[in-house]
Amino acid sequence: TINSAFMINPDANDGCAYAYDSVVRNREERRHMDAGDCECCRAYYENVGPMPRRLQQPLWRSPSTTPRKEQRQQEQHGLGAASSSHRKHRNSFRNPSEDDEAENKRDEIEAHKKAISKHRYHWPRAKTPPGYWDIGFPSTPEVDAINARASAMHRDKRRAVEREAS
């Protein structure tokens, strides 16, 4: 088992050499704990997305001239409509790839969760075994699928513990 293969670090667990989870009511102490979510809250964070920005002044300045005035000034000076500075400015706005956008959104949602989540813990909560809440006797193919999901959960947990131990 994982418990026999790995020891709990007492320094990271308030001096206890076993998995001990206590109720923390102090607001400052809770801020230092990891933020989590339940299934209901996970759907909330995915639907709401990143935390809304706080009210603040705009981070941009209005252009000194309108584009039409700028174009007229360039034509008067013989630069034409497509000057090199205009091309540089136009090419500087590139859209990040979809992977970067998805990763940024996940990071922003995680920051939102850390800022407001009521679910706080030192030790992550154990996951419910697959099929635990299903009432009735599963068929043989369902049992095989449940066992496959359970073994995948065990593998993931062992990898996470090994990663934390190293």
From TrEMBL:
GO molecular function, one term: damaged DNA binding
DNA endonuclease activator Ctp1 C-terminal domain boundaries: 19-142
Compartment annotation: Nucleus
Stretches for region Disordered: 54-133
Basic and acidic residues bias spans: 103-113
Keywords: DNA damage, Nucleus
InterPro entries linked to this entry: Ctp1_C, RBBP8-like
GO cellular component assignments: nucleus
Name used for this protein in its record: DNA endonuclease activator Ctp1 C-terminal domain-containing protein
Organism listed in the record: Coniophora puteana (strain RWD-64-598) (Brown rot fungus)
